[in-house]
Amino acid sequence: MGKVNKSNKSPTEEDVEQYEMLHPILESVFEEIKELSKKKQDGALNVIKVKMTNRVLQKIKNVLKDDPTLEFLDLLDEDTLPSNSDAVLIIAQYKATMEQFKNKHYGYNSIDHVHEWFTKG
Q1: How does pLDDT run along the chain (121 residues), one tens digit per residue?
Q2: Which long-range contacts (CB under 8 A, 24 or more apart) does 98-102 make?
Q3: CA-closest candidate to residue 14, choices 53, 55, 65
Q4: At a CB cut-off of 8 Å and minimum separation 6, what does 63 contact?
């Protein structure tokens, strides 16, 4: 049988829906801030970008609530406004964690011969 993770640490259907919605948004935010970092590494993000980014990051943290990597994920600091390069580093950690999450909970079901999410229930 293929990779099946039916443990109590498996995501819910709602977690998967949130993941599917948030993943492309995270990619877009990452690319935008990476471009800013190429132009001006030490430039600070503005408050609006930090708030918008944190809204996405917080939702991702909710999806990853049962994942051990959660403790390594920080939000952007709205008070000190991180540099572009610091923001890239933080968002890259979210990207890596999201990839790891999918690798852990998505795979080939050899019984039904489909790729699918392995969720609770």
Answers
A1: 344 444 458 999 999 999 999 999 999 999 999 999 999 999 999 999 999 999 999 999 999 999 999 999 999 999 999 999 999 999 999 999 999 999 999 999 999 899 999 998 6
A2: 98/19, 98/22, 98/23, 98/26, 98/60, 98/64, 100/69, 101/11, 101/19, 101/63, 101/64, 101/67, 101/69, 102/19
A3: 65
A4: 11, 15, 18, 19, 22, 101
Contact 19, 104 (CB under 8 A): no
Q: Please name which of 50, 53, 38 lies closest in space to residue 85, comparing C-alpha atoms.
A: 38
As for how many domains the chain has, the answer is 1
Take residue 105 and report the two structure tokens written for it. 């909970």
Domain that residue 39 falls in:
13-117
pTM of the complete model: 0.88
Q: Please indicate, yes or no, if residue 18 is contained in any of the structural domains.
A: yes
